[in-house]
Amino acid sequence: MSSRRFDTIFFITFVDSLPELNHDDKEISEIQTSSLSSILKQWNNGDLWLPPPQLYEISRFLQFSHFDTMKSFAQERSKKGLERYLPVRVNTNNGVISILPGDDLYPETPDLYGEEDIQSIDASLEELRQNAQCLHRMELKSRHNCQIAMNISPKNGQVKPADFADLFEDSKL
């Protein structure tokens, strides 16, 4: 079975006060403003589902201890260009890996349109991690159990995502 592909760009904006927000009951069913730690607690408790790309980006935000530091970083980093992150899904014996560019398992030519079947590997998440030299992946044991493994340098001046094992103890925002 293949998977649907989405070509999405995430934007970040900084405002002094919250503007009036409306939802359309189609693409947006609810609008909520919360701290990162509150969002992650809801996700961890199973009260909220966050797709892997959103978890990945939130974990990057957690690298900043202050709002102004993140704002300055975002303004400077935006001048360095973009990189498409097209995750490649692989099923394992005990979970799913969302493989990202730079990982040993990332294909030279990823399936842009979701036409190929999802690959299955007869190994555990842990075995595949131990056998890899370059890691850039999200390992999902369930919808609310995710770990990011990254030992390569991000491109274009990006920051590495925070390790999900540390998120609830060391969250800075």
UniProtKB/TrEMBL annotation:
It comes from Penaeus vannamei. Its cofactor is Mg(2+); Mn(2+). The keyword Kinase does not apply. Belongs to the Nudix hydrolase family. InterPro entries: NUDT19 (IPR039121). The lineage of its organism: Eukaryota, Metazoa, Ecdysozoa, Arthropoda, Crustacea. The keyword Aminoacyl-tRNA synthetase does not apply. This is Putative nucleoside diphosphate-linked moiety X motif 19, mitochondrial-like. Keywords: Hydrolase, Magnesium, Manganese, Metal-binding. It comes from the Eukaryota. Signal peptide: none annotated. One of its GO terms (cellular component) is mitochondrion. One of its GO terms (molecular function) is hydrolase activity, acting on acid anhydrides, in phosphorus-containing anhydrides.
